[in-house]
Amino acid sequence: MISDLLKEQKEIWEKYKKEKDKSFKNRKINMREYYYKYAFIRFLDSDFPDHYIDQIGLFNDKEKIEEELEKYENILSKAEDEAPLQKYFTDKSYLIASIVASSRFGHHDLYVFPHKRLAEQYVPDFVICGTNSMGYGWFFVELQSPSTQIVLKSGNKKGDPAEQAREGLNQIKNWNRWIKKHYEYARKESGLNMKDIDPDFCFYRLIIGRSSDFKEGFINEWRKKEISSFKGNLDILSYDRIKGYYEKHFIG
Questions:
Q1: CA–CA separation, 175 and 159 (whole Å)
Q2: CA of 41: how far to CAs of 52, 53, 87, 130, 236, in Å?
């Protein structure tokens, strides 16, 4: 990425590194002028430049945010399954990142990894890393259809998860077990390079259905039960909630 910089940008980057080193040695870290002025410095100075979400740039471009929300609503209204939404989130990763930005993580930096493989058989739709003063939080996202039945509404198994909800939860449970067993490998650069990953700070998000689906009492009862089983590290969201998080974080 450094090789792609213009000559002037390279000079600014080299000056920034020297000033930053000097600041640390003198215990005076005052690099905000560089950080807020130059987007390329924010990217290069991040842990994962290729996956970095430039929140500062987004905060300064409300028009872009509103345009993207309109596009998202249009895609969502026509989607028959999760495929077009998965493609959209891959292209516009800052939108899916908002589910972490609105948590206690992501106040510093945000990173999005589409289809990051944990093991041969485990590939989350998205892995999102958020940082704060406590360190790193890793979020694993499973997308299911926005138009599917979430919970069975009749019969002996009324209140049990329907096929796609059950499939999504099973995926998440498999990831959770794998991470608990292999987190030391996952955090190594020679492994998955998931910096400082800790099972206690791994969180899971199942995105399924629309907000109208969650107005039914027995669906919310099921949701609360599943969240409780993960001791607060799981949430089950509608696709409309993503829009709400995005508006809250980037528009306010």
A1: 24
A2: 11, 13, 28, 19, 35
Q: What pLDDT, on the 0 to 100 scale, is given for residue 101?
A: 73
The pTM assigned to this predicted structure is: 0.91
- CB neighbour list of residue 246: distance below 8 Å, 6 or more residues apart: 65, 69, 95, 98
CB 34 within 8 A of CB 13: no
Q: Which residue has the tokens 């360190």?
A: 135
Confidence grade of residue 102 (pLDDT, cut at 50, 70, 90): low
Q: What residue ranges define each of the domains in the chain, with the CATH number in brackets?
A: 2-45 (no CATH), 56-251 (3.40.91)
Half-sphere exposure of 56 (CA within 13 A, CB side): 15
Rounded to an integer, the average pLDDT of 166-189 is 96
Confidence (pLDDT) at 116: 95
Contact 79, 73 (CB under 8 A): no
DSSP lists the bridge partners of residue 52 as 111
234-237 and 202-207: which strand pairing? parallel
Which of 246, 34, 243 minimizes the C-alpha distance to 146?
A: 243
